[in-house]
C-alpha cells in the first residue's frame, strides 16, 4: 500500500436547523442554505467516505480497511473492532436549535439497532453572541418527573444550559439529554453510529407542515436521569500535545501549532487531525500536504513520524 495522509470528500447533510457556516467559515461547497452537517470521515451505511486526493483517490474507506486493515487502523484497533472504522467525525452548523435528544449505549444500540452506541464530544469552533448548549439535568430526577415535564412542554426547565465560546469542550456519555443551540459551530467526534432518540423538537414543522418523529418510548430506557459533569476543562500549550478527553472509545488531544512540530506517536492506532483554526502543512517522505481550518486528515497507523509546519489549532484523535 502506498501510504500518505488521507482526506475525503465531505458528505454534506441538509437539516431543518442547518445554515451556511459550513461554507462561510469552513469553505465547504454546500448546495443549500440549510446545510447542517459535514461528515468528514464516516463508514456509516449509506455514507461511506471516499478519498479525494492522491493515488488512492476514488477509493472508499471501507475498501482500504478491507485491503489493509492493520496498516490503516493499527493492530490493536483491528483486534478490538475487526475491519470496522470505530469513529465518525463531523462539523455541525446549528443555525437553529437542534432537537432535545440522547443516544443509547452500546448494549442497547446493539440489541435494538445492531449498532454501536454513541458516546461523543463537542469542540466549539465558533459561537454567536448569547448562544448556548443544553447538556444534562440540573439535578437528578425520576422518570415520572421527566415525563410530566415532557408532556407539559416544560422539559427545558429541568435541563442545564451553558453559554459557550470558541474552545469550549463538552463530553457526552450515552444517555445524556442534550441539544446544540442556535448559533454554534461545532467539531464533533463520536462512535460510528447514527442512532438518535429525539424527545422534543420545539413543535416545529418542515416546509410541508410535517413534524419530525419523536422517540419517547425508546428514549425512556436509555436516559441517564442523574446529573453529568459534561463540560471539560483543559490546558492549551503551544507546540505540545495536551490531553482534552480520554474515554474507552477515543482519546482527543490538542496541538496548538506555532512554527514546527515533530509528531512521533507511541500508540498503535490510526490518528485523525481536525483543523479547528489556522492552516498548516505536513511533510511526509519529502512530500508536502497543505491544509486549513475545516480540513480533517486521517493518518494511517503505519505512519509513525511526520513533520508539522504552520499556525493552527488541531484536535488529535486516536483509539
Automatic annotation (TrEMBL):
Annotated active site: 198
Which keywords accompany this UniProt record? Isomerase, Metal-binding, Zinc
Cofactor(s) needed: Zn(2+)
Q: Where is the signal peptide?
A: none
MF annotations from Gene Ontology: mannose-6-phosphate isomerase activity; zinc ion binding
Q: Which CDD domains does its entry note?
A: cupin_PMI_type_I_N_bac (cd07010)
- Check the record and name the Pfam families matching this protein: MPI_cupin_dom, PMI_typeI_cat
Q: Where does Zn(2+) bind?
A: 103, 120, 178
Bound cofactor: record note: Binds 1 zinc ion per subunit.
The record's annotation in InterPro entries points to: Carb_Metab_Reg_Kinase/Isom (IPR051804), Man6P_isomerase_Firm_short (IPR014628), MPI_cupin_dom (IPR049071), PMI_typeI_cat (IPR046457), RmlC-like_jellyroll (IPR014710), RmlC_Cupin_sf (IPR011051)
| GO biological process per UniProt | carbohydrate metabolic process
Q: Where is the Mannose-6-phosphate isomerase cupin domain?
A: 241-315
Q: Where does the Phosphomannose isomerase type I catalytic domain start and stop, copy by copy?
A: 11-114
This protein is called what? Phosphohexomutase
State the species of origin: Flavobacterium tibetense
Amino acid at each position: 500500500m502506498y501510504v500518505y495522509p488521507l482526506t475525503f470528500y465531505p458528505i454534506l447533510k441538509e437539516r431543518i436547523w442547518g445554515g451556511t457556516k459550513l461554507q462561510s467559515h469552513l469553505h465547504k461547497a454546500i448546495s443549500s442554505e440549510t446545510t447542517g452537517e459535514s461528515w468528514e470521515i464516516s463508514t456509516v451505511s449509506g455514507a461511506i467516505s471516499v478519498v479525494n486526493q492522491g493515488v488512492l483517490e476514488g477509493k472508499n474507506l471501507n475498501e482500504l480497511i478491507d485491503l489493509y486493515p492493520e496498516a490503516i487502523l493499527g493492530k490493536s484497533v483491528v483486534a478490538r473492532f475487526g475491519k470496522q472504522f470505530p469513529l465518525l467525525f463531523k462539523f455541525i452548523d446549528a443555525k437553529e436549535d437542534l432537537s432535545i435528544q440522547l443516544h443509547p449505549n452500546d448494549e442497547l444500540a446493539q440489541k435494538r439497532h445492531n449498532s454501536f452506541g454513541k458516546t461523543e464530544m463537542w469542540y466549539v469552533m465558533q459561537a454567536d453572541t448569547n448562544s448556548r448548549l443544553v447538556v444534562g439535568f440540573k439535578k437528578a430526577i425520576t422518570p415520572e418527573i421527566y415525563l410530566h415535564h415532557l408532556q407539559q412542554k416544560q422539559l427545558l426547565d429541568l435541563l442545564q444550559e451553558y453559554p459557550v465560546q470558541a474552545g469550549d469542550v463538552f463530553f457526552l456519555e450515552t444517555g445524556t439529554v442534550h441539544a446544540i443551540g442556535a448559533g454554534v459551530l461545532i467539531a464533533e467526534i463520536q462512535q460510528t453510529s447514527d442512532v438518535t432518540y429525539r424527545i422534543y423538537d420545539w413543535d416545529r414543522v418542515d416546509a410541508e407542515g410535517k413534524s419530525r418523529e419523536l422517540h419517547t418510548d425508546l428514549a425512556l430506557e436509555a436516559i441517564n436521569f442523574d446529573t453529568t459533569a459534561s463540560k471539560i476543562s483543559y490546558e492549551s500549550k503551544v507546540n505540545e500535545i495536551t490531553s482534552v478527553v480520554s474515554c474507552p472509545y477515543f482519546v482527543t488531544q490538542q496541538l496548538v501549532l506555532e512554527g514546527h512540530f515533530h509528531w512521533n506517536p507511541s500508540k498503535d492506532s490510526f490518528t485523525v487531525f481536525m483543523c479547528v483554526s489556522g492552516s498548516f502543512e505536513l511533510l511526509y517522505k519529502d512530500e508536502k500536504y497543505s491544509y486549513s481550518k475545516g480540513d480533517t486528515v486521517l493518518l494511517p497507523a503505519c505512519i509513525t513520524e511526520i513533520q508539522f509546519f504552520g499556525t493552527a489549532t488541531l484536535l488529535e484523535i486516536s483509539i
